[in-house]
Amino acid sequence: MATIDTSLVAKLPLFAGLSPAELDAVLQEARSIRVPKNGHVFEQGEDAHSFFVLLHGHVRASKVTPAGEQIVVRYVAPGETLGVAMAIGLSRYPATATAVDDSIVLAWPTAAWPRLVEQYPELATNTLLTVGSRLQETHSRVVEMSTQQVEQRVAHALLRLAKQSGRKVENGVQIDFPISRQDIAQMTGTTLHTVSRLLSGWEQKGLIESGRQKIVLREPHQLVVLADQAPDDKTS
């Protein structure tokens, strides 16, 4: 941990409220792990041996249903926690975390969690805030899946990703990590064919640009209009 500059992580949500000395003590128990693109941080069903903070890169959390269908649960951005299964009473990871680009995580052993939160209650408070925020996001997605047509769901997904990890470029806002049309389909409960048809149509209208695992929102405000209105024709 001597290679980690504490000033780089002091402002991360998990460590809010810790003094420099407390942060240094917490970091002394962590190890830095490089995860190559497409490598797994952890896998669904595996014993929850560690919890993590993403320092660099992006991670896709996905879940396989009993029927064998893969669902993209969310994308994790730098500074976010992941694998905090023990904080919600789970002994195994409920999803698989895969690096979508070369990534670096800090890892703490799960066995250290009870002692750390007893010594530093801010860790528990900050984790609870993170879990609550993700629960709200999940509720929003459930409402979208239950009440919205697929065009709205896809627009919401792109806007959510751009808000989380968007980077301004000359022609708009680029989602700043590799993402495929299949990923979007798995996020929005629809098919690759439907997502491809929608994105191709939006590209023809100048709303987006898409390439191999790359999407740029050229007209984000128009996507907001699409996300918030009810189309006349229902797509599935």
TrEMBL record:
InterPro entries, A to Z: cNMP-bd_dom, cNMP-bd_dom_sf, Env_Response_Regulators, HTH_CRP, RmlC-like_jellyroll, WH-like_DNA-bd_sf, WH_DNA-bd_sf
A Pfam family annotated for this UniProt entry: cNMP_binding
Entry-linked CDD domains: CAP_ED, HTH_CRP
Domain (HTH crp-type): residue spans on this chain: 148-221
Tree of life domain: Bacteria
GO cellular component: cytosol
SUPFAM superfamilies, per the entry: cAMP-binding domain-like (SSF51206), Winged helix' DNA-binding domain (SSF46785)
Keyword Transcription: yes
Residue ranges occupied by any Cyclic nucleotide-binding domain in the UniProt entry: 14-117
Keywords of this entry: DNA-binding, Nitrogen fixation, Transcription, Transcription regulation
GO MF annotation terms: DNA binding; DNA-binding transcription factor activity
Name of the protein: Crp/Fnr family transcriptional regulator
Native source species: Rhodopseudomonas pentothenatexigens
